[in-house]
């Protein structure tokens, strides 16, 4: 390193008289023996005894400074018997090179160093280049040497920042983070080897603590780097290799855990001698060799991967092992770790260069056949696009044919009615498409409204249903619903035995038909539905609900749900059979009835599906006050959020007049019953029940009277009562 100083200073080589060679040592200042310095003087005197070194030499008159070399522990320096410093114990510095001003007495100079060992295994003038000369030149050379010492840790620190930034920017190489951590800890440890740390005026205990903590964490972080670098790259198919990998992994975990625990222990323990004893007796002779063995096994397993990096790591490990052996006094060699760490840096650099060269080679190969690849990919893209277009056209054709099948089975956006009731329908499916300039929609929501005559009276039959599934699957379920119900309506018009059924019985027959068909699909196709009959003459609503959103009744400007207690499972649900219950509700002039699928409640608001049943009641109330079309209600609904599902709505407005005849008949029947005129009261009860079928109490009275008389009406009315919801 000495030859670098004149290059940096652009001056002549340093003129100084070296003090390396034979010195005299003594423990009492009387009996003197010769010893070669710099060296570790451990063993020359008993532990904790004072040790004195002296050297007498002839010097030039311009000698004004003394560079002591690396001196450990608390030491006092004398020149011709004059004390040059005032040490303390424990020392305020350690392993330090001192630059002291001296004043020679003529040409004879006697130098003396008195040691009071602090550590029992290492003390004395350990290493360095002790010399005397001009103090200004000595200080300049000392400063340059310390700057050179700082060069390597700063290089490692910059590399640490580089790998940390590379991981944060790209996140592709997971080994970059442990490598950055290892390089940062290594740079901190190497900074502790510079004497410039004493210019920070930090307490010696804290400096020593930083050094030992970083020393404990060096190899665990390096092992972590090895773990990510060589992860899953070794062929472990052989049983022997698997056994070796398990043993070395166990050793690495145990040793690393011990070192990390030691680092935490050092943070809270203030006895430096304990740290030093643990390092010299356990860490360096036991734990580190085991970890070096683990790393050597990893390197051998992955020898063919990144050879420059592996060679650099091997050189660094070898230099570190030599320094450990030198510290344990097994061998006597110059420090090798700093030079070997340069090989590690070179290995990293060459590894990056090799990776860059490989990347450039791959890029050049890609560029060489880029045109061919682009042409090939373009042809593939065009072919795939043509296939997609063909498949899309076929799919849209299937959609269009299905929508044509579904169209006559449902009433999409229609209105109708008579003098006593008006109705309107609205359907909007989520799936819309175009096929050969024909735009249409497809989904599983369906509305059906049809008139049917039962027992000589006209009813409005309606169905609002939602088949399971999206687009084509839901449309298939809607086709099934429309076909089955359409067949039931057609048979009712043709067959007298069906048109003679009561509303409750007809609704049960329709439920059984729908349930049997959907149940045959074994749960792969289900539907929720509400099916009802409206007696426009008597103003009465009959319906059942199969797990469908409830009907909404608007009466006197207030909207509320009709909640039947006998809610059924979905059509086709593979669950135990349920007993059908028909809900019966009387209607008054001005009442409005709404039926709708779950699309009315489930809206997409800010990217989330929110279901709110109260929102629809609010919108219905506002809509009835405005007297607008049903499509306006949907527009109002979409102001709250986008539709997230298919939507089918039905609206019925009952405009019949309130009649006084049912009340007259009821009073007549009550009078006849009080007089026990059973036979005369039965026709009156029958007429009253026909005009007011929702009066379940009168129906029960009629059953008892008909049974007393043995009339067939008893059984018919009893069947009606059994089918009704008891809460109606």
Summarize this, please?
With 728 residues, the chain is an alpha+beta fold. The strands form 6 sheets. A 6-stranded antiparallel sheet has the order 3-2-4-9-6-7, with no helix packed on it. A 6-stranded antiparallel sheet has the order 12-13-27-23-20-21, with helices on one face.
End-to-end distance, in Å?
A: 105 Å
* CATH architecture level-2 label of the largest domain: 4-Layer Sandwich
Computed over alpha carbons, the radius of gyration is: 50 Å
The total of helices stands at 18
Taken together, the total number of domains comes to 4
CATH class of the largest domain: Alpha Beta
Q: Residue share in helices?
A: 40-55%
Keywords: Coiled coil, Hydrolase, Membrane, Transmembrane, Transmembrane helix
InterPro entries: Bact_Sigma-Reg, PPM-type-like_dom_sf, PPM-type_phosphatase-like_dom
GO molecular function: phosphatase activity
Transmembrane segments: 147-169, 176-192, 212-230, 250-268, 280-300, 307-324
Please explain how this structure is put together.
The chain is an alpha+beta fold and 728 residues long. It has 4 domains: 4-133, Galactose-binding domain-like (Jelly Rolls, Sandwich), CATH 2.60.120.260; 150-358; 400-654, Phosphatase 2c, domain 1 (4-Layer Sandwich); 661-723, Serine Threonine Protein Phosphatase 5, Tetratricopeptide repeat (Alpha Horseshoe), CATH 1.25.40. The chain contains 18 helices and 27 strands. The protein has a 6-stranded antiparallel sheet with strand order 3-2-4-9-6-7, with no helix packed on it. The chain has a 6-stranded antiparallel sheet with strand order 12-13-27-23-20-21, covered by helices on one side. β20 (551-555) and β21 form a beta hairpin. α3 runs antiparallel to α4 (204-229). The chain is elongated and about 155 Å long.
């Amino acid at each position: 390193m000495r030859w670098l100083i004149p290059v940096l200073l652009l001056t002549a080589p340093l003129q100084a008289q070296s003090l390396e060679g034979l010195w005299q040592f003594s423990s009492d200042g009387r009996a003197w023996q010769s010893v070669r310095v710099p060296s570790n003087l451990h063993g020359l005197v008993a532990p904790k005894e004072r040790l004195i070194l002296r050297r007498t030499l002839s010097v030039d008159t311009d000698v004004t400074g003394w560079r002591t070399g690396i001196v450990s522990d608390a030491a006092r320096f004398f020149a011709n018997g004059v004390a040059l410093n005032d040490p303390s114990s424990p020392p305020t510095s350690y392993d330090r090179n001192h630059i002291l001003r001296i004043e020679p007495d003529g040409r004879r100079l006697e130098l003396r160093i008195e040691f009071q060992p602090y550590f029992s295994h290492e003390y004395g003038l350990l290493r360095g280049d002790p010399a005397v000369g001009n103090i200004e030149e000595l200080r300049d050379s000392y400063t340059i040497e310390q700057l050179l010492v700082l060069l390597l840790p700063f290089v490692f620190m910059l590399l640490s920042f580089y790998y940390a930034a590379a991981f944060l920017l790209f996140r592709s190489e997971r080994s970059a983070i442990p490598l950055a951590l290892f390089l940062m800890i290594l740079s901190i440890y190497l900074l502790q080897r510079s004497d410039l740390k004493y210019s920070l005026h930090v307490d010696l205990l804290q400096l020593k603590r930083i050094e030992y903590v970083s020393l404990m964490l060096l190899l665990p972080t390096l092992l972590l780097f090895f773990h990510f670098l060589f992860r899953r790259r070794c062929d472990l198919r052989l049983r022997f290799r698997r056994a070796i990998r398990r043993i070395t992994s166990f050793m690495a975990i145990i040793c690393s855990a011990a070192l990390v625990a030691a680092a935490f222990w050092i943070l809270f323990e203030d006895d430096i001698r304990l740290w030093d004893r643990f390092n010299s007796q356990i860490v360096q002779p036991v734990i580190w060799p085991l970890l070096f063995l683990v790393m050597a096994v990893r390197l051998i397993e992955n020898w063919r991967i990144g050879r420059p990096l592996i060679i650099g790591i091997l050189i660094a490990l070898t230099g570190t092992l030599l320094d450990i052996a030198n510290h344990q006094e097994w061998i006597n060699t110059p420090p090798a770790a700093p030079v070997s760490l340069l090989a590690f840096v070179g290995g990293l650099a060459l590894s990056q260069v090799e990776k860059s060269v490989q990347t450039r080679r791959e890029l050049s190969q890609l560029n060489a056949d880029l045109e061919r690849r682009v042409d090939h990919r373009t042809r593939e893209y065009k072919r795939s696009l043509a296939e997609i277009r063909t498949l899309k056209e076929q799919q849209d054709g299937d959609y269009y044919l299905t929508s044509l099948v579904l169209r006559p089975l449902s009433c999409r956006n229609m209105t109708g009615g008579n003098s006593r009731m008006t109705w309107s329908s609205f359907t909007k499916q989520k799936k819309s498409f175009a096929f050969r300039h024909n735009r249409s929609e497809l989904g599983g929501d369906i509305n059906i409204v049809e008139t049917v005559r039962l027992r000589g009276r006209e009813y409005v039959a309606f169905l609002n249903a939602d088949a399971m599934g999206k687009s084509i699957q839901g449309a298939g379920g809607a086709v099934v619903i429309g076909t089955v119900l359409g067949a039931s309506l057609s048979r009712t018009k043709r067959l007298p035995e069906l048109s003679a059924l009561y509303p409750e019985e007809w609704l049960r027959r329709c439920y059984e038909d729908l349930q049997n068909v959907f149940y045959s699909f074994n749960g792969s196709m289900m539907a929720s539905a509400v099916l009802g009959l409206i007696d426009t003459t008597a103003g009465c609503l009959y319906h059942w609900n199969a797990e469908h959103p409830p009907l909404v009744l608007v009466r006197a400007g207030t909207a509320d749900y009709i909640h039947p207690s006998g809610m059924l499972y979905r059509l086709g649900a593979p669950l135990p059979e349920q007993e059908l219950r028909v809900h019966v509700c009387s209607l008054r002039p001005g009442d409005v009835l709404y039926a709708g699928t779950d699309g009315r409640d489930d809206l997409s608001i800010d990217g989330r599906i929110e279901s709110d049943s109260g929102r629809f009641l609010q919108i219905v109330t506002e809509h009835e006050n405005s007297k607008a079309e049903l499509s306006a209600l949907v527009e109002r609904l979409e102001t709250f959020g986008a539709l997230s599902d298919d939507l089918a709505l039905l609206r019925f407005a009952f405009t019949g007049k309130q009649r006084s005849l049912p009340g007259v008949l009821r009073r007549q029947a009550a009078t006849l019953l009080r007089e026990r005129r059973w036979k005369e009261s039965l026709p009156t009860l029958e007429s009253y029940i026909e005009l007011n079928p929702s009066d379940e109490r009168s129906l029960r009275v009629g059953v008892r009277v008909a049974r007393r008389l043995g009339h067939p009406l008893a059984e018919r009315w009893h069947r009606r009562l059994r089918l009704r919801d008891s809460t109606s």
